Amino acid sequence: MSVTSVEHEHRVTPRELFFDLVFVFAFTQVATLLANDPTFAGIGRGVLVLGALWWAWAAYAWLTNVVDPEEELVGVALLVALIAMFIAALAVPGVFTDDGVLFGAAFLVVCLLQATLYAVAGRGDRDLLGAVLRVAPASLGGATLILVAGFTDSARTWLWLAALVVSYVGALLGGSQGWRIHPSHFAERHGLVVIIALGEAFIAIGIGANGIDLGLGEVAAAVLGLLVASSFWLAYFDFFSIRGEQMLHEREGADRVAFARDLYTYAHYPMIVGIVLFAFAMKTIVGDIGDELDSVAAFALCGGSALFLITFTLVRTRVARRLELSSGRFVAAIAFLLVLPLATLIPALAALALVLAVWLALHAYELVWWREARAESRSLLASPP
Fold first, then answer.
1. Which residue range forms the structural domain that includes residue 106?
2. pTM of the model
3. Which of 23, 24, 144, 292 has its CA at 20 to 30 Å from residue 189's CA atom?
4. Radius of gyration of the chain (CA)
5. What is the DSSP string of 154-217?
6. pLDDT tens-digit series, residues 20-73
7. Residue 270: CB partners within 8 Å, gap ≥ 6?
8. Domains identified in the chain, total number
């Protein structure tokens, strides 16, 4: 058995989709972690856990972009990694209490398998192997710190923070030389994980409605929540997913790799955080539509949408190489933050309706303002890259 690198574009395979299913459960577990500790400190810890989960997923997205996941050895390794990731997800609700060691051990296995497979795939490619060896110490070092954190109490959160800094900054310092990117596959894979994260919002709405009497208000909250989740989807797939793939195709070599790292590996992380924060808020809203939201739930509701949209401003800044604060999405993000104090003073259902109103205003603006750009992007998508 061997691992060979793929030299051409390819579609996302069923095996990759099957591997990604474990992250549906993992994201749900993060929402459970937040629900068990509905404080700002709890949100901070949830964001740290999401950072680790995202790093694991992103690492395999890079791996299966250049190796064939249908090869026997790769398939076996993906299955083992899936099992280890599932065990880590099981431990998420107790990762900062009794299950930190279990999470850390399983997470280290996931990272070790990815680094090993990538190194094996790069044996015949000196540049690729060198790129893997530059990043592997940071990735494995971060995973080791998470394992060590499981044995501590007072320094656990700080060790988690250090672990993510080591992993994310280490990848940045490792440079973009030697890596390879197949743009269509890479963009498609990230679009699918956004859908997986949005699936967590649907699950959260269902969990919030579980065990309560469904009246008109609860049904209205569920519908409004689904419409907000659809707004996240529209903001990503109506234009950004198409244009992102096109910009990857337009670049070559190290510039393409650096752009993929910044636009997808780094920028998609806050997008996922924003979606999961919204999902956490929906658990509270559906069950308590007439109550006022506390500051934490209001922050998750409004801040989740704001974070998701601010990320697009960061992407525009990265593309233009200058600060871009004039977009409708940046204005909408500011509007969400301005709505936040009001969301603690009105019933939860009304706060959710207000958030949806901001989203609808943004969509109406973009349908007019982006009409020509959207048509142009779709015409380019219809042509071979």
1. 1-180
2. 0.91
3. 144
4. 21
5. TTHHHHHHHHHHHHHHHHHHT-STT----HHHHHHHHHHHHHHHHHHHHHHHHHHHTTS---HH
6. 889 888 988 998 899 889 999 999 999 999 999 999 999 999 988 888 887 888
7. 307, 308, 310, 311, 314
8. 2
